[in-house]
Amino acid sequence: MNSKVVTIQDVAIVAGVSTATVSRALSKPEKVNKATREKVMAAVRVTGYRINQTARNLRKKEAGAVVALVPNLGNPFFSSILSGIESVLAKEGLSLLVVDILQTSFEREQAYDYLSMNQADGLLVLDGTLDLTNLNDGSVSSELPPVVYCCEWGTDPRFGSVRVDNHQGSQLAVSHLHTLGHKAIGLVRGPAENRLTAARQEGFEAAILKHSLPLRTEWLIDGGFSLEAGVQAAHQWCALEERPTAIFCMSDEVAFGFISELDRLGFSVPKDVSVVGFDDIAIAERFIPSLTTIRQPRFRIGQEAAGKLLRRIAGEVENRAESEATAHRTVLPVELIERQSTAPVSEKQRAL
Amino acid sequence: MNSKVVTIQDVAIVAGVSTATVSRALSKPEKVNKATREKVMAAVRVTGYRINQTARNLRKKEAGAVVALVPNLGNPFFSSILSGIESVLAKEGLSLLVVDILQTSFEREQAYDYLSMNQADGLLVLDGTLDLTNLNDGSVSSELPPVVYCCEWGTDPRFGSVRVDNHQGSQLAVSHLHTLGHKAIGLVRGPAENRLTAARQEGFEAAILKHSLPLRTEWLIDGGFSLEAGVQAAHQWCALEERPTAIFCMSDEVAFGFISELDRLGFSVPKDVSVVGFDDIAIAERFIPSLTTIRQPRFRIGQEAAGKLLRRIAGEVENRAESEATAHRTVLPVELIERQSTAPVSEKQRAL
DNA sequence: CATATACATGTAATCGATTGCAGTCAAAAT
DNA sequence: ATTTTGACTGCAATCGATTACATGTATATG
Q1: Mind listing the pLDDT tens digit for each residue in B293-337?
Q2: Residues of chain A neighbouring B286 (CB-CB closer than 8 A)
């Protein structure tokens, strides 16, 4: 029938009404007479009309989309979060634009290009190292753009953030190991510049002190969040004169790399060393040994972050009676998942 | 300075030229006098002008974005592919819209909403079960919309597709096991309705026959692509009267579930049974035992698919001297990665 | 019966950039 | 000197939907 694109005009003609009425019938049905509405709907069906989002967005000065800035899409840790984000956005009819910072050779400035170019209504930042302070400089100076950190947080306390209680996570890990009788507990840190690393290390050290355990700097191993970092860490552990009988890794991936390389080096987990991870990604339950870890509710983090962003976009200020700062920050609890990679400290281990 | 949004008008005024000139200076610099161009650029800088993508898209009838339909964003298998897609799109200045079909309770019809609503210039489909034949019905009937299947393929041969040689993958797996002396080789299938499952099974059976090995239906275990499916499969294997000494799993995830559950049931890989996976996701190298598997170049698949889609959007017909059908389909080679989950068949195994 | 009120609909401006067409002007060709 | 050519630039229409405002009609009120 129609070789051309069907516009609201065509529908109007077929329905015998004005374009304004068609528009209203579609977006504000209650403002239009029932009979008219049905005429319009019929015309829509006949013509096969589909709304042109671009035109609508231009007029309404919206983008209908939200950008998620991901440090590395290839990392499975982020996929569940994105999934959670999607689930919320989809319900509101918003699209999710995914930007892989690694792949894009992402410049800091580009962060808000998406906002200023009307490509997105808001920003979800999954990488804390991306500092967005200059978001305040631009032409939008007066208003705070809708930005929510996800699993992360930035310097400006006015930006929203959704994350877990990292401090608590470390505490749980250490307490668990302490309960199992471990006294020599080491740490494989995340990336050096990362905020998460700092927070978890802080929690770790606090917990160590709380339990009056020794805190040795040589037991603080530099790592990262990757498998490879875990492999390196294994060699470091191995080279230690006095080896900790338990290790807390700041991510499951490092833990896997660590355990795997240990295995190749002839050590066994948890017999020779207990290992606790962080995240509880899917494979943690099925690794051999299954991994004791701190569960982050990743899907939920995504959902909460998306929800918070949506509220900001809608202009709802979050002013629950709480203080300014905490109103912007949502902190979700973590959970210790006990599995096979941790075990009571053995005689043989003590002997070392 | 500017409380309002800066438009091309403002730039034009500051530069003392018309909006047309500004537009040209920005998008077709060569069509504008150097002096003028510099005036414009200066004005852009002064005003802090940012182009409004929505307006541009409306006028140019483009969307500046591509949609990727993902069956389950939470599955790490897809993240690398998305990463590859992103890397190509970013270079062209296109955005990537990610739609999680699971989370969106995705209706088939919505697949081309994105196209018809001008939200996307093309579609990347990572799920073969999503049949897009009705894309031909709509108002766009005459022209084939830019759609490329990624790791998958659909019924309409005119849609593009980029995938690996699944047949070959199965062959490699079986040959490898055969070389190790295995005669009783089982298969854990993927999801029943899935095209990949069919293709890989076909390749598997062909290879089994080629090597004159026994093909027993009870050795064809129903599975899926998930960890859980692998767990189930382990029980099935266990319940078998005559157990295959080697199992080919249609995905790494199933393989992990399978091996893990076997471990819990008191069996060991590769001692009691050799296992080959498919995909070679990152953790495969670090699983214990490390997983022998068929590597899919996932990042590259994403790149190729994005490239192909881009070409289709640009309207370049792919008419390399090849036949119509094959021109649309890119088939990438796979690779056998030998690791520790497979071993020569042992005396004890033969005894069973 | 006249006026107020609410509701339904149409008219036309608007969102911000792009681009076909026409006009200007100087350099090159005749 | 006149015409041709070509390079720039500006005018104004256009993309498709939304919405403020105006208009018209029916019902309620005094």
Answers
A1: 999 999 999 999 999 999 999 876 655 545 555 678 899 999 999
A2: 227, 230-231, 256-257, 260-261
| C-beta atoms of A79 and B80 within 8 A | no
| Element (DSSP H or E) covering residue B275 | strand B274-279
Place of tokens 């492999």: A231
Count how many Cα atoms sit within 13 Å of the Cα of residue B328 in the half-sphere of its side chain.
17
> B63 — contact with chain A (CB < 8 Å)?
yes
- Cβ-Cβ pairs closer than 8 A, A with B, add up to 178
Q: Which residues of B171-197 are buried (b: 16+ CB within 10 A; e: fewer)?
A: bbbbebbbebebbbbbbbbbbeebbbb
Chain B hits for A54, Cβ within 8 Å? 54, 57-58, 63, 118-119
Q: How far from each other are the two terminal CA atoms of chain A, in whole angstroms? A: 83
User: Is the pLDDT confidence value at B92 over 70?
Assistant: yes
A130 in Cβ contact with A156 (< 8 Å): no
The residue behind tokens 């060569």 is B30
Sign of CA dihedral A37, A42, A47, A53: positive
- Lowest mean pLDDT, pick from A148-152, A272-276, B153-157: B153-157
Q: What is the C-alpha to C-alpha distance for residues A303 and A87, in angstroms, rounded to an integer?
A: 7
Cis before A270 (ω within 30): yes
Chain C, protein-covered positions (CB within 7 A): 7-12, 14-20
Query: Judging by beta carbons within 10 Å of its beta carbon (0-12, 13-18, 19+), is residue A13 exposed, middle or buried?
Result: middle
Question: Using an 8 Å Cβ cutoff, are A219 and A184 in contact?
Answer: yes
**CA–CA dist B135, B115 (Å, integer):** 10
For residue A280, how many other CB atoms are within 10 A of its CB? 22
The single residue listed with the structure tokens 């905020």 is A195
Q: Structural domains in chain A? A: 8-51 (1.10.260), 64-164+299-332 (3.40.50.2300), 166-296+336-351 (3.40.50.2300)
Tokens 């231009």, located at residue: A58
Residue B154 has pLDDT above 90, yes or no: no
The CA-CA-CA angle for residues A64, A65, A68, to 5°, reads: 165
Please give the structure tokens belonging to residue A187.
């740490």
**A-chain residues near B113 (CB < 8 A):** 50
Q: Decide: A249 and A315 in contact? Cβ < 8 Å.
A: no
Closest-approach residue (CA) in chain A for B67: A97
